[in-house]
Amino acid sequence: MAEILMIVSGADALRLADGTSHPTGYWAEEVAVSHKVLTEAGHRVRIATPGGVRPTVDPLSLDERGGVAEGDAKEFGAYLDSIEAELASPLDLAAVTLDGYDALYIPGGHAPMADLASDPGLGRLLDEADRRGLTVAALCHGPAALLSATRADGSFTFAGRALTSFSDEEEQQGGLGDANPYSVESRLRDRGGIVTTGPAWASKVVVDGNLVTGQNPQSSRDTARSVLSALDGRR
Question: What keywords would UniProt list here (predicted)?
Fold first, then answer.
């Protein structure tokens, strides 16, 4: 059994390009499906947030306004209810060490752009995890969290690595568009990441050594399965 740390944003709002506040949170499918795939494979998942705050689910991720079918929303909501105790009492990210963990897993929603992308403690954790060769996975807007990671010389930990994220095309079609404070795809590329994206709203996963990234909510299951494969390869 592997130990997996799922790092979930604690933000419930994102400051937009015009300075206004937009309600947000984690994306239900990305937490629910990922958690289910990983735990049903026999692994233990611990949830951590900045400050140990209870994370907020983005209401649009459980609503047809967010492109989520009613049946899917009920399924995701029911699963989140089943792990209510874990969501209600997450670990404090600042107090977490990597001892005993085999993988880090960061789901999205726009919320990681608000806190995880600039969290220095998370950045140190990610850099250490990468140097140790632990599996590091991020999904949709979750790769924004990778931006927090720098080497001792100030360079981006994941420069030169192949990865993907929620695409600019998807952001324009069904995200926040030009209201977004920044483009995750573009910023990762500017920092030196080798970013490739697939067709909008189709599952795409990129694996580069110990780094696993998924493009969008539709990639949730395949991203978690790729983590399972990575963990099997470490045994």
Answer: Glutamine amidotransferase, Lyase, Stress response
Q: Is residue 234's pLDDT more than 90? A: no
> Which structure tokens are listed for 59?
């209401």
Structure tokens at 137: 């996975």
Kindly list the domain boundaries of the chain, sorted by start residue.
3-234
**Angle between the 220-234 and 28-40 helix axes, to the nearest 10 degrees?**
30
Task: Write out the two tokens for 109.
Answer: 């929603």
Please count the other Cβ atoms lying within 10 Å of the Cβ belonging to residue 218: 20
- Averaged pLDDT for residues 14-19: 97
Reading the block at residue 84, the tokens are 């209510």
Domain spanning 3-234 has what CATH number?
Answer: 3.40.50.880
Q: Which pLDDT belongs to residue 235?
A: 56
Amino acid at position 104, single letter: L
120 Cβ neighbours under 8 A, 6+ residues apart: 148
User: Which of 107, 108, 110, 109 lies closest to 17, judged by CA?
Assistant: 110
Give dist(CA 176, CA 16) in Å, integer: 9
Please report the DSSP string for 161-218 in residue order: -EE--S-HHHHHHHS-GGGSSS-HHHHHHHTT-EE---STTS--EEEETTEEEE-SGG
DSSP H or E run through 22: strand 21-23
Q: What stretches of 47-167 show up as alpha helix (H) in DSSP?
A: 70-82, 84-88, 120-132
